[in-house]
């Protein structure tokens, strides 16, 4: 089955990080499989081992932690060309400390991490792309940590809207509040102060 076309956006986005020609792209497709997740379905749970490297092709997912008191804290939102996997679990084989949920119907390209590492040794472009992805992740994490330490809740919300302009009107308040580390009530008050008009999508 030809699985190239549903992954055109993924190929294009990865190509912007490191040029990936059609031959190198075909090598990845030979090793990978399509996996579809319905909105609300777990891609993996906290405590699972995650030996698979999953590239998001279409849809939206979220990495999240479950705190000792049972509350959920969203770690990051994942869109096209993001990786829905635990880096530490892939490298060490230990259980992941966080989980991943599809927030919309989501399509992934998934392959064993061991197969991807082997691909990197035989195709230098994938080694270059791996480094580019790690650099992008590190920069994203550094920005996220600084925002959480230095910004007020209102500034965090404004930063979220700037970073995810297509999401702040469509995501449930629960997911946004969990990402910002505030309650849904606090989020509603921030929106009211800023004059944000949208349907209040309270978590049920």
Gyration radius, to the nearest Å? 18 Å
- Return the structural class: alpha+beta
What's the end-to-end separation, in Å? 40 Å
Strand order of the largest sheet: 2-6-4-5
Arithmetic mean pLDDT: 92
Beta-strand segment tally:
7
Major β-sheet annotation: 4 strands, antiparallel
Oligomer: single chain
* Dominant shape: globular
Helix content: 40-55%
Number of helices: 8
Q: What fraction of the residues are assigned to beta strands by DSSP?
A: 15-25%
Low-confidence stretches: 199-204
Question: What sequence of helices (H) and strands (E) makes up the elements?
Answer: HHEEEEEHEEHHHHH
Descriptors:
204 residues; alpha+beta; four-stranded antiparallel sheet; three-stranded antiparallel sheet; globular
Would you summarize the structure shown here?
With 204 residues, the chain is α+β, with helices and mostly antiparallel strands. Helices cover 46% and strands 19% of the residues. The strands form two sheets. A four-stranded antiparallel sheet has the order 2-6-4-5. Strands 1-7-3 form a three-stranded antiparallel sheet.
Q: What would you note in describing this structure?
A:
The protein has 8 helices and 7 strands; from the N terminus they run H-H-E-E-E-E-E-H-E-E-H-H-H-H-H. It is α+β, with helices and mostly antiparallel strands. The chain has helices at residues 8-17, 22-31, 87-92, 113-122, 124-150, 153-163, 173-180, 184-194; strands spanning 33-37, 42-44, 52-58, 61-66, 72-78, 99-102, 106-112. Residues 199-204 have low confidence and may be disordered. The chain is globular, with a radius of gyration of 18 Å.
């Amino acid at each position: 089955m030809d699985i190239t076309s549903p992954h055109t956006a993924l190929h294009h986005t990865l190509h912007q990080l490191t040029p990936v020609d059609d031959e190198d792209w075909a090598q990845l497709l030979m090793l990978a499989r399509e996996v579809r997740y319905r909105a609300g379905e777990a891609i993996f749970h906290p405590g699972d081992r995650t030996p698979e490297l999953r590239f998001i092709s279409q849809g939206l997912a979220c990495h999240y932690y479950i705190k000792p008191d049972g509350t959920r804290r969203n770690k990051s939102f994942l869109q096209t060309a993001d990786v829905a996997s635990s880096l530490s679990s892939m490298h060490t084989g230990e259980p992941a400390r966080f989980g991943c949920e599809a927030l919309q119907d989501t399509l992934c390209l998934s392959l064993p991490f061991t197969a991807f590492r082997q691909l990197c040794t035989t195709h230098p472009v994938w080694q270059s792309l791996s480094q580019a992805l790690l650099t992008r992740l590190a920069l994203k994490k550094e920005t996220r940590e600084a925002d959480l330490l230095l910004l007020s809740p209102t500034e965090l919300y404004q930063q979220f809207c700037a970073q995810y302009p297509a999401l702040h009107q469509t995501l449930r308040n629960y997911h946004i509040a969990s990402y910002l580390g505030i309650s849904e009530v606090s989020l509603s008050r921030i929106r009211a102060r800023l004059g944000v008009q949208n349907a209040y999508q309270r978590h049920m």
